[in-house]
Design a protein that fits this description.
heterodimer; A: about 200 residues; alpha/beta; two-stranded parallel ribbon; 11 helices; about 10% strand; globular; B: about 220 residues; alpha+beta; 6 strands; about 30% helix
């Protein structure tokens, strides 16, 4: 694969279609600048600020842009809020549509056949794979991103987080909790799952 | 003409577990980020649009045996050949052997941030009033068209309710075929689980929605 990719890069550079320096900037952008910590800031702001929450739920694209996140694969955003009665879950069964400006690149499982095939039919089984079990009374609302609208799940604010600052709250917001396959961390538990970007 | 998407996976009989992954884990080989960047850079060159690139990927015959970035690489090679931007001998030998076609632009390093931040919004001015209103019941078309489309097979011929209206958007079906944007109203249509799956599986208290362009729908 390595050679095949390098060969293609050479052809495209020699033919003048690409600027190799732009490739490095693109990679750096998604490796170090654009990732799920952006989305965590959006969620934490919604938890702290009722007016922002309402804005986010009514015009997510504008509310998210006000924090500086916009653009490719996030042109048309919709935020869906979890409540005690409804748990939201996002998928793209047709390819891998995902809100890049706030979550970065999709994880491997999000793009995989098991997730895309199963989550629309057996959401509770898929949640079990993530160690999440929801009460039977909770309705699971699955959003299949089949067009250019991208979805952000706003998870429920964890109990015991009242005294935390917005910044501390953002640390509780995991990537998976913004897709719906996870729940936010509880205060006092260090994130095991990730290196914040 | 038969058009077959190998990417339409919703509801298919796949038993494997979903494997969670830590947040920072983005790539699994050094060539993967290069493929990502090559694809994004070439998308900016204006030789094809995003819907045509999805069509190229989903019709790869070996789609299901390939990893994600293998799909992107094979899709990119296919698009280059289809558009005439590269020839098979060039891809085989890894060097330019023929004249380049005219690309609309080259994405330069200094423009990347601005181009990504701008994105490619798909909302357009509607050419006619919306046919459906919030809360209306609609039925999706039952027959798949012989070209790229974005109505998943598991939602074909099903009744649902219009939950959101997103304005008029570039119509993926025509855009992918090079027939223009032909903007159409876009709706979130929600389906009850028994409508989708019958009683073949225990109820899970779930609702699934798709975003469907108006031509995918008919009144109930």
């Amino acid at each position: 694969m390595e050679l095949r990719v390098r060969a293609l890069e050479t052809v495209l550079t020699q033919k003048g279609y690409i600027d190799p320096a732009a490739l490095d900037v693109l990679i750096d952008t998604y490796q170090t600048k654009v990732g799920p910590r952006n989305g965590a800031r959006v969620v934490a702001r919604a938890w702290c600020d009722g007016e922002f929450r309402n804005w986010l739920l009514h015009d997510a694209t504008a509310a998210i842009a006000s924090l500086g996140f916009s653009g490719r694969q996030g042109e048309h955003m919709v935020a869906v809020e979890n409540t005690p009665d409804v748990h939201n879950l996002v998928v793209c069964t047709l390819c891998s549509c995902y809100p890049w400006p706030i979550l970065g690149l999709p994880p491997t499982w999000y793009k995989s056949a098991p997730y895309r095939a199963r989550v629309v039919k057996d959401p509770r089984g898929v949640l079990e794979d993530f160690g999440v079990s929801l009460p039977e009374t909770v309705r699971i609302r699955i959003w299949d991103s089949t067009a250019e609208v991208r979805y952000l799940v706003v998870p429920q604010r964890p109990k015991g987080s009242l005294r935390l600052s917005e910044r501390e709250l953002a640390e509780l917001v995991t990537r998976d909790s913004m897709i719906g396959t996870g729940l936010p961390l509880e205060p006092g538990i260090t994130p095991a799952a990730g290196t914040p970007i | 003409m038969i058009y077959r998407s190998n990417a339409d996976l919703g509801g298919q009989d796949v038993r494997d577990a979903v494997l969670p992954e830590p947040e920072g884990e983005l790539f699994h080989a050094d060539w993967e980020p290069r493929v990502l960047a090559l694809t994004l850079a070439m998308n900016a060159a204006g030789l094809w649009n995003i819907d045509a690139s999805r069509a190229a990927r989903e019709t790869l015959p070996h789609y299901r045996e390939l990893s994600y970035y293998q799909i992107w690489l094979a899709g990119l090679e296919k698009l280059l050949l289809q558009s005439g931007a590269a020839q098979p001998d060039e891809i085989d030998q890894g060097r330019a052997l023929h004249a380049a076609v005219a690309a609309s632009k080259v994405l330069h390093a200094g423009e990347v941030a601005a181009v990504l931040a701008r994105g490619s919004p798909t909302v357009r001015k509607p050419i006619s009033p919306a046919r459906y209103a919030l809360g209306m019941r609609v039925r999706t078309l039952s027959v798949a068209p012989p070209h790229h489309t974005r109505l998943p097979a598991y939602t074909r011929g099903k009744c649902g309710v219009v939950e959101r209206i997103h304005g008029a958007h570039v119509f993926a079906d025509t855009h992918a075929q090079g027939l223009g944007e032909q903007p159409q109203w876009l709706y979130t249509v929600a389906f009850d689980e028994t409508e989708l799956w019958g009683v073949s599986r225990p109820r899970q208290r779930s609702t699934v929605s798709v975003d469907a362009w108006e031509p995918y729908l008919e009144p109930v």
